[in-house]
Structures are given as structure tokens and as C-alpha cells.
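Researcher: Dear colleague, please comment on this protein.
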Amino acid sequence: MDQAEGASRWRILAVLLGVIFMSLIGVSIVNVALPSIQVGLDADQSDLQWVLSGYALTFGIILVAAGRAGDIVGRGGIFLVGVGIFTLSSVAAGFASDATWLNAARFVQGIGSGLISPQVIGMIQHYFRGEDRGKAFGYLGTAVGVSVAIGPVLGGFLIGVGGPELGWRLTFLVNVPIGIIAVILGMRWFPKPLFRRPPAAPASGTDRPASWLWSLDPVGSVLLGLALLAILYPFMQSNASALWWGLLPVGAVLVWLWVRWEQRCPRLGHTPMVDLDIFRTSSFTNGTAIMTLYFTGMTSIWVLVALYVQDGQGKTAFESGLFGIPSALLSAYAAHWSGRRVNHYGRRIVIGGLFLALFGLAASIAVVFLHERFDVSVWWLMLSLAFIGIAQGAVISPNQTLTLAEVPLEYAGSSGAIMQTGQRVGTSVGIAVITAAVFASLARWSWSVAVVIGFSLISLVVLVALAMAFKDQRDRRRIVASKAASDVGEPRPVYISDTQF
């Protein structure tokens, strides 16, 4: 297993999951801490928006370049650098004296998290195979679910203990001991060397090797980063002007330039950031599309629930957080369960999860309608949203396993980062469009009608994701049938991927 045999793989996974747990708790805690930050730093609404958006922006921009850097110079080393940056920026955020300082620290935190995330996917791909890989991704999904459930509760506790001035600072500083422990254990347990100098590729048309820096594809990194900045930025503005929306066609042009450059790189003797041939692998292309669509719709649910129960029903922020706890815990269990079985049931688990998502959305619409017409308790949403949690556990981790199953290991980090970039773009676009539709509906109708409209739009997006899942299932069956036809008369081993329908 490439310097990580047996039990040592699971120790590596423990470090990875601990850091992911830390980073995700950090995200959910910040959501709870925003009112305290506003009071403590005398921040305005624009400042608060950038506490969230600045982190998300730098995180999304750096993902693919960070994934490729890990593939080339060492995933373990890049991971630990990311943990160090995230931890130090958490210290800076915790001691921020004004909103500008805090937002600068959040930008840097996003960079640290962007360095970490693709290495986690790449290292799971590298060190785990077959059923163990599915289990590892299942544990990753469990860590995500538990962190989402614990984050708001821990944030509320820290703010209650520390008060309005110290409490929100503790929500950042709580990351520091976890980060320090992760760096120490990573230095001890990760295979050595943590970094490696990549071999220089021959320059085009010469025998003289090109600089090893070209293996990191700096031109491609800049082009893709600018493209994502142009695409994401308008969706992160609460009242974006027409000028900012004009960045979208600029982003499309930059994506086209990036693709052209990546195609040209091999002819120049350079290593591309992303091997575009990976998109010829239907399982990767279909799985990335499923994940992008899923995040475009489903991440908006919790935004709508928070708005509905607080602004529409007069609940407190703490009460709003309680609505998601059963969902998050069931998501953690479902991720663990499906991770152990994804290599047997394959795409059927994802399809089942998407059907559960549609059922949960329909049930939530029914609860909102019955509350409006017959005064049924809005707390029944905890039950309907529980199906959303099961769906999340059955879709996200299994889809990662299936999507990356045929990706070459040398592109594991960058390919995983492409999938995560799709998630980030989907999340930003979905939240912006769906919440805009809900607020537009409020101009004419009640909160209940507006939320039903929002849930209905999410359902349409999930239906498209479901159609892509059925397409992937059909493509897998066709590939297996083609292999069987070509091997007629010859003994052939049965591969795990043959069962992933």
C-alpha cells in the first residue's frame, strides 16, 4: 500500500477525519456566532456576509490547484501545511480587533481548508482499495454528519459560557488544540518523505528538462482560479449589481481558455493540472454531475428552514438549530451503513438516497401546508427532515466512492477537487437562485407558500440528479455488457466495479 500497510492506514484516516471534523465544526459554529460577532465587533451586514462568503470564495478557488499540488509534491505534506494555515488563521480570527481583521483571517482560513480537503480525498483513494475504500468514505460521511449536528450546539455552549465578547472568539480558538494535535500525529504517522521533488519533464522539442515548477501547471492554476472567482463572486453578493453579473460570461471565457491550455500542455512538454481525458470516464463525469446537482438543490434546504422557523414562525436561533439534529445524526449513520455496502449495491444506494430526498421534501411541504391550514405543529419538520439526513448519508459518500473508482491515482487529488469544486459552484448558485425565488414570493404570499415554492424548486433539481444517476447506472451496465461480449470464450475475473449498478 505504498508505505502505509495494515493498521497504519487507519491511523492516517483518523488524522484526516479529525481535521475534517475540526474544519466543518468551524463552519457550522460560525453560523451560530454571527449575531455575537455583530455585537462584539460592531460589524454591519456586509461584514457578516463576508465572514461566510470570504471563506467559501478562497476555499472554492484553491481546490483544484491544491489537489494537483498534492498529487505532484506529496499529499501528506500539503495536508499538514493546510492544517497549519487553518490553525494559525483560527488564532488570528479569535483575536480579531475589528471586522476587517476577522474577514482577512477568514480568507486565509478558506485557503487552509482548500489545501486540506482535496488531500483527504486523494489520500483515501491512495491508501484504501475495494471495500475498505467504501468504509473509509463512509467514516468520512459519518464525521461530516456528526460535526454538522454538534457544531451549532457547541457554538451555543461556548457563546453561553464566554458571553457576547469572549464567546464568539472561543468558536474560532476551539480549532487550535485539534490542529496542533493533528500536525503532531501527521508528522509522526504519515509516510515519509512528506514532500517530494517532482521529476522535470522534457521541454517540447528539446532534450533539456523543463523546470519542475511546470509540473504544477501555474498557468492553468491561475486561469482556473480567475474563472472560479468570476463565476462565484456574483452569487456571493447579497445585492449584486448588473456589473457584477457581467462577470459570468467572463468566467465562461476563462473556463474555455483553461480547457484550451490544458489540451495544449502535453504538446509543450508540460504536465496539465487536470488530465481532461478523465472526463471520458463516464463514471467520473456522471458522478461529478450528480454531486453538483445535488448540492445545487439540497444545501438550500437548511437555509430555508432557518429562515422559515425564525422569521416565519418566530423561533429562536437555538430552536432553529434543533430542527437539524435528527437529520445530521441519521446522516452520519447512513453514511457509515452505505460506505460498508457501496461496493455491493453500487449506484442503487445513490438512487435510493435521491428517492428518499424527494420523499423528505414532499413530507416537509406537507408539514408546512398542514401547519398553515390546520395549525399542525411545525416541529413535525424534524421528522420529515430526518429523511433528508438519511438521503445525505446515502448519496454523498457512496457517490464519492463510485465517482473516483476508475480515476488514476496520480490524478486522485485533482480529480477529487474537481468534484468538490462542482459542489462549491452548485452550493453558491443554488442558494442564490432558490433564496431569491423565496424572497420574491414573499412579496405576494406568506412564508409558508414561499417555502413550499423553494422546496418545490429543490425537488426539480433533485429529479435531474436522479435522472443522471439512472444514466450512470445504464452506462455501467453497458460497459459491463461490452466487456462480457469481448471476453466471450475467455475466462475473466469478476471485478467489484461490475456490481456497481
Remarks:
- Residues 164 and 437 are 34 Å apart (CA to CA).
- The two ends are 27 Å apart (CA to CA).
- The chain has a mean pLDDT of 83.
